[in-house]
Write a structure and sequence with these properties.
This protein is of the alpha/beta class. The protein has 16 helices and 16 strands. The protein binds zinc ion. Pathway: Purine metabolism; guanine degradation; xanthine from guanine: step 1/1.
C-alpha cells in the first residue's frame, strides 16, 4: 500500500553554505511512500495524488520537515538535565555520575529507555547518536526500545576505566567481552548501529583506547564517539595525562580513533593543526550550543570548522544541554554563531539539523531530505494551537521567512507528528486533518 503525506514541505537538497539554491519549499506539497518507507515521489500535492489515486493520504495542516538528526546525546543523563555544576568536571562528579549509576537497575533502565525514546520522537528527532549506559542491560534496553518504536539510533556502552566511581568502570577485558556481545546483537537490526564510546581521554587508559581502536578495525561499519576540547581544565588535565601527544586530537589519533565514522563532541577550544587533521581524516564534530552555554564551556566556531572541511552536525548533549530535541536546539545554534558575526539563514539552519547530520553519519544515501529513494523520516510542525506564534507567522513576508522564524521559535509542543521510514508517531494522539 502506498501512503501519501501532505503539507507545506521544506528540505535542503545540497549544502546551502556553497549552494544558494539548496532550500526547496513546496507549499501544499506531498510525498508518496511505499511499504518499506521509501519515498516514491515528491511534488505538489495534486500531482502526487493524481499519480497514486489509490494511496492512503495523511494530510497535515502544518510544515513537514525532514526528521532531525541528533549527533550527541547521553541516554543515562535523561534525568540529570539542568542539574547544577560550576563547570564540566565538577558537574560530572556532583550531578552526572550519580545519575548514571542509577541505570544499574534494569527495571529502571527499561522505563528510562521508554522515556528517552518517546521524548526524542516527541521532539522531532528521528535519528540519534547516543552515549549508552555503562551497564550492558541498560544499553541493551535502549536498543530494544528504539527497535520497537522505530527510532534510528547509533549507540554503545559508555567505556571508562578510571576517574569515576567504581560502579561505572569496566576493566579492559570486561569492556571487550561486553562490547563484542552488544555489537553482534545490534548488527541484526537494520535501523540500529553500534558506536564504540570511550567517554573521553581522561576516563580511559591507553589500554582502553587501544581496545577501541582494535574493535573498530575488527568490525565493519562501527562508529566511534567521544568528547574533545570542551573545557580548559579538561584540556590541561588531558595534556598532563598524555604528555607524548601533540594535542588533544592527537591522543585519539594515536589510537586509530579518527575517520569518517567518528564523531567528536564540542571541539570548542581547538587550533588550526587539529582542525586540519579533522578535515584530512573526515572526522566529524558535533556542535552542542545549549550545553556549551549551560556549562560555560565556550563558543564553537562553525566558520573555522567549515574552512578546514570538517563535517559538522548538531547535538543536544542532554543532560548538559537543556533542549531534548535538535529542532529546538537550532535556535541556540543560530545565537552561538550570531555571537561570532556568522548569521545563518533558514536553509543553513535546516541543513545543520538534517542533511548535515546524515552526511556526517554516512547516512545521506538513506536520510536527511525527501529525495526520491530515501526513507521517509519527517517531523510535522503545527502551530494551530499556538495563536501567538500563528499570528507572528502571519507577519512573515514569504515561506522562507516563515521557516526561519519557526526554526527559532518552535518548541516540542508544536511537534504534531514524527515518522521514521513512513511509520507515524503522533505522541499526543492528534489526528491529521
Ligand atoms: Zn556529552
Amino acid at each position: 500500500m502506498v501512503q501519501i503525506f501532505s503539507g507545506d514541505i521544506a528540505h535542503v537538497v545540497a549544502d546551502p553554505f556553497t549552494h544558494g539554491d539548496a532550500l526547496q519549499i513546496i507549499e501544499n506539497g506531498a510525498f508518496a511512500v511505499d511499504e518499506q518507507g521509501t519515498i516514491l515521489a515528491l511534488d505538489k500535492r495534486d500531482r502526487v495524488t493524481r499519480r497514486y489515486p489509490d494511496a492512503v493520504e495523511t494530510r497535515f495542516d502544518g510544515w513537514v520537515l525532514p526528521g532531525m538528526i541528533d549527533g550527541h546525546i547521553h541516554f543515562p543523563q535523561t534525568f540529570a538535565t539542568a542539574a547544577h555544576g560550576t563547570h564540566l568536571l565538577d558537574w560530572l562528579e556532583r550531578s552526572v555520575f550519580p545519575a548514571e549509576a542509577a541505570y544499574a537497575d534494569e527495571d529502571f533502565a527499561r522505563s528510562a529507555a521508554e522515556t528517552f525514546v518517546d521524548q526524542l520522537l516527541r521532539s522531532g528527532t528521528t535519528t540519534a547518536l547516543v552515549f549508552g549506559s555503562q551497564f550492558p542491560g541498560a544499553t541493551r534496553a535502549l536498543f530494544q526500545v528504539a527497535a520497537e518504536k522505530g527510532l534510528r539510533i547509533i549507540s554503545g556502552l559508555t567505556l571508562m576505566d578510571q576517574g569515576a566511581p567504581d560502579a561505572l568502570l569496566h576493566t579492559v577485558p570486561q569492556a571487550e567481552k561486553l562490547s563484542r556481545t552488544l555489537i553482534e546483537e545490534v548488527e541484526k537490526e537494520p535501523k540500529l548501529h553500534y558506536a564504540l564510546t570511550p567517554r573521553f581521554a581522561l576516563s580511559c587508559t591507553a589500554e582502553m583506547m587501544t581496545l577501541c581502536g582494535e574493535l573498530a578495525r575488527a568490525y565493519d561499519g562501527l562508529y566511534i564517539q567521544t568528547h574533545i576540547n570542551e573545557n580548559g581544565e579538561e584540556i590541561e588535565a588531558t595534556a598532563a595525562a598524555f604528555p607524548e601527544a601533540a594535542n588533544y586530537l592527537d591522543v585519539y589519533d594515536r589510537f586509530g580513533l579518527l575517520g569518517s565514522r567518528t564523531v567528536l563532541a564540542h571541539n570548542i577550544h581547538t587550533c588550526d593543526a587539529q582542525l586540519k587533521r579533522l578535515g584530512e581524516t573526515g572526522t566529524a564534530v558535533c556542535h552542542c550550543p545549549a550545553s556549551n552555554f549551560y556549562l560555560g564551556s565556550g563558543i564553537f566556531s562553525l566558520k573555522r570548522h567549515r574552512h578546514h572541511g570538517v563535517p559538522v552536525l548538531v547535538g543536544t548533549d542532554i543532560g548538559a544541554g537543556t533542549n531534548f530535541g535538535v529542532l529546538e536546539e537550532l535556535g541556540s545554534v543560530y545565537k552561538a554563531q550570531q555571537m561570532q558575526r556568522l548569521s545563518l539563514n533558514a536553509a543553513q539552519l535546516l541543513y545543520l539539523g538534517t542533511l548535515a547530520g546524515a552526511e556526517a553519519l554516512q547516512m545521506a544515501d538513506r536520510i536527511g531530505n525527501f529525495a526520491v529513494g530515501k526513507q521517509a523520516d519527517f517531523v510535522v510542525i503545527d502551530t494551530a494551537e499556538d495563536p501567538g506564534l500563528r499570528l507572528r507567522l502571519g507577519f512573515c513576508h514569504n515561506p522562507e521567512d516563515a521557516l526561519f522564524t519557526q526554526l527559532n521559535l518552535v518548541r516540542p509542543h508544536h511537534v504534531r507528528a514524527t515518522a521514521v521510514a513512513g511509520r507515524l508517531h503522533q505522541p499526543r494522539g492528534h489526528g491529521a486533518v
